Amino acid sequence: MLKKVKEKQNIRLNADEIPHVRIEDANFPAPFRSGLEYSSPARGTWNIVHTGMLIPEAHEIFVCAAGCLRGVVLTAAEMGTTDRFSTVAVRENNLLDGDMEDLVIEGVTDIINKLPKRPPAVLVYTSCVHHFTGVDLDMIYATLRSRFPDIDFTDCYMNPIMRKSGLTPDQLMRSRLYMLLHEREIDPNAVAIIGNDLPTDADSDLMRVLKGAGLRVHEITSCKTYEEYQQMAESRAYISYNPDAAPGGNMLSDRLGGIHYALKFSFDYDEIDSTFAGLAEVLGIDPRSREEISALREECERELEETKRLIGDTPVSIDYTYCPRPLGLAKLLLDHGINVTRVYVDGIPGGDRAAFDSLQKEHPDLMIYPTVHPGMRFARTANAEAGGGDVKVLAIGQKAAAFEETDNFVNIVEGGGMTGYEAITRTCRLMREAFLEKKEMRELVQVKGLGCEVCVR
Amino acid sequence: MKQTARIISTYSADVMGVCSALFELGGMTIMHDASGCNSTYTTHDEPRWYDMDSMVYISGVSEMEAIMGDDEKLISDIVDAAAVLKPAFIAIAGTPIPTMTGFDFEAVAAVIEQRSGIPSFGFPTTGMNTYIHGASMAFAGIAKRFVDDPADNKSESNTLQMSARKLASVLDSCCMRPNGIKVNILGLTPLDFSINGTDDSIVQWLEREGFEVVSKWAMGSSLDEIRRSAEADVNLVVSAAGYGAARVLYERFGMPYAIGFPAGNELPGLLADQIILNVKKFREQGGGSSFESSEISVDSGVFLNGNSSADGRTYEKGFAAVIGEGITSLSLAGTIELECGIPAKVLCATECPEGILRECDLMTPDEDDIIPELEGAAFVIADPLYRPIVPESAKFISLPSEAFSGRIYRDEIPDLVSDVNELLIKIK
After folding, report:
1. Is the ipTM of this complex over 0.90?
2. What are phi and psi of B349, to 5 degrees?
3. How many CB pairs under 8 A join A and B?
4. Using an 8 Å Cβ cutoff, are A260 and A237 in contact?
5. Residue A370: DSSP 8-state
6. What architecture is the A303-455 domain classified under in CATH?
7. What is the pTM of this model?
8. Which of A22, A149, A255, A315 stands the most exposed, by the fewest C-beta atoms within 10 Å?
9. Cα distance between the two ends of chain B
10. H/E run at residue B80
11. Would you call A377 and B55 a contact, using CB atoms and an 8 Å cutoff?
């Protein structure tokens, strides 16, 4: 017999009770115990639908349960690409009947036959239920390729249950993005930037180095047609700077023969120089001169000083969605007198290990906050009630902005196409802009896939 | 082929229905899933997410935990979080993975309740049904567990007889006028009614008709108000999400219910009469009889049995098709028939209890089932994401639904209780 309980509800946490840890006391790489997870309303990071849509003219077909389809269908609808998106719903009888292979094959066939125009490529996304039922994916794709020899198929996955086993879904998706490239003659003058969702800045260090060497640069974000996408396969080198793209870069290199170079995304001057020197060596181009490097460093110092001068002691919060190295950015800013008080990150990225170690010693009071811990449900309310001045907190990244309830924030995700010293100078400029001009934070952060309009062609 | 959708969207799923139903009641709801459901729900299904600090979480189950049957991780995670956050209750809702691993929701909920001392529910949703299934299940759970029994402090043991006497007294004293009749509104979630004030409009309509509203399940009522639901005389089921609770409250307290959504100029009056009639039926039958859903819902069906309109329209030709949730769509179809004189059939894309839809209506979520049903339609009233499959010969009338298109057209979702004429004028 169930009993009834009538406790008074007391579910609010004040600012002090919001989960956090001093970096000096934090463990690497997991400062917080994993448990139930909260979902922040900040939505700017890309998901597997957005990323798959980067392949021009490709059609996505998701095969999974309705509950899992819901988010991806509406992602496609919100980005205006429902004409390139279809679904096959897995129902309970499919789990019991063991007809999962038939459902995928016949469902995909049915959809392709109904499309008004035959797509050159189809991305078939299977899900956790296929993994757990031991579905014969090889047979499925072999059958589809046999039925539709004019279509390139690739296997994509929506199986978040595998996020702690092997490649993460994000790494897997970035690797699948280039599986459709057909081997072709390599052009020694062509290179490709791979694995980033957003276009690389034209004035980024990477683009300036490549263009300065007279190389033709392919990037999926600028491909308008499937044929343009295929031209990426002529590259003699594949360069990634999103850490999650590295496994895919290696696969691509093994399959098509070009070199893969994983450029490090860093805010450390020496590491920037080192990684760009490595790139020059791999490509056989002239490295940046000492004078050039010196000028770039001086520009960074000027930007950092100007930023400090403007924002003074305003507290700064950073979150992991801004770039792959949030602690590296925190260290750079703190070393230049900027008052970084909080970094929102659930796990410390491997590339941030050196910055983590340094911050523990040199800035031990920096606070690390999680983003998915259940207590974070109350962070926005608690921070809003804590109050502040005209600019109470300057946030770098959407999640930091949402948690801090501040309209003064830098609205960039996934590094925003920045690389090298340009990532520092641009960040400084964006910080000053954010300090001076408020944004409509609530509306902006809830938009899914910031910058995904590059997929709509 | 069934189960494929070339271009249309999909309805919010059962697990999200549980979350939506319980959102405002001060509990902690956990979707037992790896990842994804939480952001989907909070982005597309829950317009209250930014403004209300409701505790909806995901368990984040991993491959190894699922394979090894490590329920202890989930249990301890929930108990630990609850110890800090002190929810009024705990609910776990399922998704495909726990369905496949045979997760015992009831048993795990019992363990959590024992350890935490907090009332706990296990809702065996699968992620493969629509939100209606989950919301109905959740409301039924609340009705079983939290609604106080007025008989707790009485000597009589037969609550049905007691309720019947109470109602008889109410009706005698008010001579079959609604004054003094207390109503619970069952089945309110933003998935069907958004956050545009429709819930308040329903209350205002009931009050204008002379009813008194005790509770709103579950928008705008606290758990304490929900607890007092047995003080009401009758339940109004405004969407199929409320049906499960209506049945439980009938079984527990003998409370009658009426089914319908007050959209229109004429149908709301009929619905008010139906509420009174059902209370009367209840009195006459002594409270212990079972009602058939078809006996207690409001619909027109005036064009059944081959009847056609004055200009020759039938359910096969020249009709209006309403696509959406069963009860709201049926009420809207009834209004179209009553006020526009046009046969209106329902294509119910979500679960609907037996006996509510008419023989001209169809219940199916599948694109390939819906497309042929639209042949011959003069008007199609549906969410904009259905538009690509609507024949060019039909006039498309947009009626967005959070449950189908999420937040995309939220600003365009009408309050059909107060603004239905704006829709009807496009048909008349």
Report:
1. yes
2. -95, 0
3. 223
4. yes
5. -
6. 3-Layer(aba) Sandwich (3.40)
7. 0.94
8. A149
9. 35
10. helix B71-85
11. yes
CB-based burial of residue B326 (10 Å sphere; 0-12 exposed, 13-18 middle, 19+ buried)? buried
What is the tens place of the pLDDT at every residue in B116-165? 999 999 999 999 999 999 999 999 999 999 999 987 755 444 444 445 44
Provide, rounded to the nearest whole percent, the portion of chain A with pLDDT above 90.
86
Per residue in B146-157, pLDDT (tens digit) is: 999 987 755 444
A64: which 2 tokens? Answer: 């999974």
Query: Considering only CB atoms, which chain A residues are within 8 Å of B35?
Result: 37, 160-161, 163
Instruction: Report the distance separating Cα B258 and Cα B274, nearest Å.
Output: 7
Beta strands A121-127 and A85-89, pairing class: unpaired
Alpha carbon distance A89, B366 (integer Å): 10
CATH code, domain with B119: 3.40.50.1980
The answer on B265 and B181 residing in a single domain is yes
- Work out the widest C-alpha separation in chain B, in whole angstroms: 67
CATH 3.40.50.1980 is the classification of domain A190-283: yes
Hey, is A158 helix, strand or coil?
A: strand
Domain range summary for chain A, segments of one domain joined by +: 56-176, 190-283, 303-455
Kindly determine whether residue A36 and residue B50, on different chains, have CB atoms separated by under 8 Å: no
Cis ω on the peptide bond leading into residue A354 (within 30° of 0)?
no
Q: Are A165 and B62 in contact (CB under 8 A)?
A: yes
Rounded Cα–Cα distance for residues A87 and B7 (Å): 8
Write down the residue that tokens 């005209």 correspond to: A390
Question: Which domain covers residue B95, as residue numbers?
Answer: 14-129
* Residues B334, B261 share a domain: no
Q: Which two tokens mark A423?
A: 């990532």
Interface residue of A158, A161, A162 to substitute, partner B, most B CBs within 10 Å: A161
B334 with B374, same domain: the answer is yes
SS3 label, residue B22: helix
